[in-house]
Amino acid sequence: MARASEHYVCQNCGAVTRRWQGRCGACGEWNSIVEEAVAATVPKGPGGGKGRKLKLVPLDPGDGLELPRLATGIGELDRVTGGGLVPGSAVLVGGDPGIGKSTLLLQAVTLLARDGVRCAYVSGEEATRQISMRAERLGALDAPVELAAATSIRDIVATMEARDAPRVVVIDSIQTMFVDALESAPGTVAQVRASAQELIRTAKQRDIVVLLVGHVTKEGQIAGPRVLEHMVDTVLYFEGERGHQFRIMRAVKNRYGPTDEIGVFEMSDAGLIEVPNPSELFLSGRPGGAVSGSAVFAGLEGSRPLLVEVQALVASSPLATPRRTVVGWDGNRLAMVMAVLDARCGLAISGHDVYLNVAGGLRIVEPAADLAVAAALVSSLADRPVPEHSVFFGEIGLSGEIRAVSQADLRCREAAKLGFARAFTAPAAKRREAPLAVTEIDRLQALVQLFANDGGGDI
After folding, report:
1. What is the pLDDT of residues 262-307, one digit of tens each?
2. At 400, is the secondary structure helix, strand, or coil?
């Protein structure tokens, strides 16, 4: 008979140790080790009996491969999920506190319920009265959504296995749920993993859509074991700055659709409102007239072209180690672009304080933004505005060359639709007739020369 024992589990990465320690040796997180008891059990193995033979099916079932989907009625959410919710799937939605996760999911289930889909909203953090008050603010009290305040996985699974079970279930949040067979507290690694496993198993068996709300850590990752993201079918991150009304939903994993799509929402008194043309919204706050240090990047998020403003400020630094402040872009990528400007173009930019900001609260992960960032930096350093009504996109190599990026025609069409007249980009071997003038730049020195020749003087 095995003895009962205790072990220590990191609540950030799930690593198990035999003794407590201040810092996790696996992920480096401080004060994340928590003691968890292990019940005394007999070690189990396959035993002497035979298992049941698996039921094997052919690769082509013969009944069509198209997955039926439940359209939520929120176009941006349907875009991110690949066209709607797939029955039997588990979707994990993570984001900072107060970003709008619960509001968006409540809006989605109210629209589904109005279309005749039976939906249940189970909250472990709020009472049913509080959920009703939020629905009243959203103008959705007439929707036949069923509410429950519960944290027991046993009760929730029993509801999902009933004959009149709902087709869509929202769990808000997975960190508040617990399995009574485990002695650890809700929110620990063991509880989160076991709770999610039971919900996902039931959802697959009963063809129920399970929407899980997940808390995030201070680094922006979903709290709990990393295996949680591997267990679910779709992982959505809800992003946004508190100072901006924009909210961006990004798919980082999707077994039933693309993983590079984003949905854009605007927070209002009536909840989250879809933004069908995010480019126009992100550029709406641009100052009129020519301003140095500002360049427009023609980006691409999934299949959607997106125009955003990149702002840079290069100022003389009194410090021995100049400051580098980056918001909305990769700081390592900024260091690389600055090094190329220093080494290949002869600009003394490394001794200055550099501040870079992507306006609107959007985070750019595309290398095609290199050219727009370089244009904003050189413009600020020279104190000369970029050419008026122009957009920039292109990847910068370490030797100073500008490399072509994908979907250049789509980017140009979006820029022309919003009134831009010129695009600066890398040479392309084959290019369709663009709706605006295209200036091809093969080397970064040509971009620097553009500012040196514009208005006279040296940079």
Report:
1. 899 988 888 899 988 888 878 877 766 678 999 999 999 888 899 9
2. coil
Could you tell me where the DSSP H helices lie in 90-188? 101-114, 128-137, 153-160
- Res 147: pLDDT: 96
Domains of the chain: 5-38 (no CATH), 75-276 (3.40.50.300), 285-453 (3.30.230.10)
Rounded Cα distance, 40 and 358, in Å: 55
- Beta-carbon contacts of residue 203 (< 8 Å; ≥ 6 apart): 88, 89, 90, 160, 169, 209, 210
From residue 324, give the alpha-carbon distance in Å to each of 328, 374, 446.
Answer: 13, 15, 25
Closest CA to 445 of 392, 405, 401: 401
DSSP strand E in 349-400: where? 352-358, 390-392, 395-396
pTM of the model: 0.80
* Structure tokens that stand for 161 in this block: 């296995």
Residue 447, token pair as written in the block: 């971009």
Residue type (1 letter), 227: V
